[in-house]
């Protein structure tokens, strides 16, 4: 049994040049961190395009979508901002193996929940976009939960400092 434990430690730790033990992080972790960053940067672009939409572009939307944009309360836009900027910052922290990534992914998820609450229970986005309008909110929520789970696992395994 002791031999298995030593083998496991040898696989998860490496000796640094100064003789200290360092935790090895699996390669997939950095791939996920990069995907998280790219995904959240896309969210930042979506947020910027939403808050900077021009009257000319707004006119091209169907009336129901125009009404959603024009009637968006500040707190809903704020929740969107929290979701994407906390998620982006958390992704950078994940890349740099910083434990604050977990807290920021939680903040991002809270922003998503508040934003989705507005969209589906106040603004009736389902009536505007129909069933196909559920695809992106479901994807956003699933990705947020997955990135949070990865950050929690990373913190638990001491991959984050």
If you had to describe this structure to a student in words, what would you say it looks like?
This protein has eight helices and two strands; from the N terminus they run αββααααααα. Strands 1-2 form a two-stranded antiparallel sheet. The chain has helices at residues 2-12, 27-51, 55-59, 63-70, 74-95, 100-122, 125-129, 135-156; strands at 13-15, 21-23. The chain has 161 residues and is mainly α. It is elongated. Helix 2 (27-51) runs antiparallel to helix 5 (74-95). It is 75% helix and 4% strand. Strand 1 (13-15) and strand 2 form a beta hairpin. Mean pLDDT is 89; it is low at 5-10 and 14-19.
Main sheet: which strands, in order across?
A: 1-2
How large, in whole angstroms, is the Cα Rg?
A: 20 Å
State the total count of DSSP E strands: 2
Rounded mean pLDDT score: 89
Distance between the termini: 29 Å
- Please indicate the percent range of residues in DSSP E strands (runs of 2 or more): under 5%
Helix content: over 70%
SSE sequence, one letter per element: HEEHHHHHHH
Poorly predicted runs of 5 or more residues? 5-10, 14-19
Largest sheet: 2 strands, antiparallel
The count of helical stretches stands at 8
Shape: elongated
Structural class: mainly alpha
In brief, what are we looking at here?
The protein is mainly alpha-helical. The protein has helices at about 1-10, 25-50, 55-60, 65-70, 75-95, 100-120, 125-130, 135-155, and strands spanning about 15, 20-25. Residues about 5-10 and about 15-20 have low confidence and may be disordered.
